[in-house]
Design a protein that fits this description.
Elements: H1 11-14, H2 19-35, H3 48-63, E1 64-66, E2 73-75
Antiparallel strand pairs: 1-2
Helix pairs in contact: 2-3
Length: 76
């Protein structure tokens, strides 16, 4: 299900990503939810939820990277 605000994001996103990265995640997830609602558009037999989370994380990883010491994400 699409997220109305960043407060609705999963704890794993809210507790580790900075605010801007959370917005990237939310916007990308919501867009992917619409884009891949039709199972025929998905390249794998994965669920809609699984696909949209992968797409959202991929978008975050384009601009952010995880600090291995702290586990927090920082801008590249």
């Amino acid at each position: 299900m699409p997220y109305k605000s960043i407060r609705d994001l999963p704890d794993s996103v809210r507790n580790h990503l900075p605010g801007h990265a959370q917005e990237i995640y939310r916007e990308t997830f919501n867009h992917a939810w619409e884009e891949y609602a039709d199972p025929e558009k998905r390249k794998t037999p994965s669920s809609l939820e699984e696909v949209t989370h992968r797409v959202a994380w991929a978008a975050v990883k384009k601009q952010y990277e995880k600090d291995e010491k702290t586990g927090m994400w920082k801008k590249k």
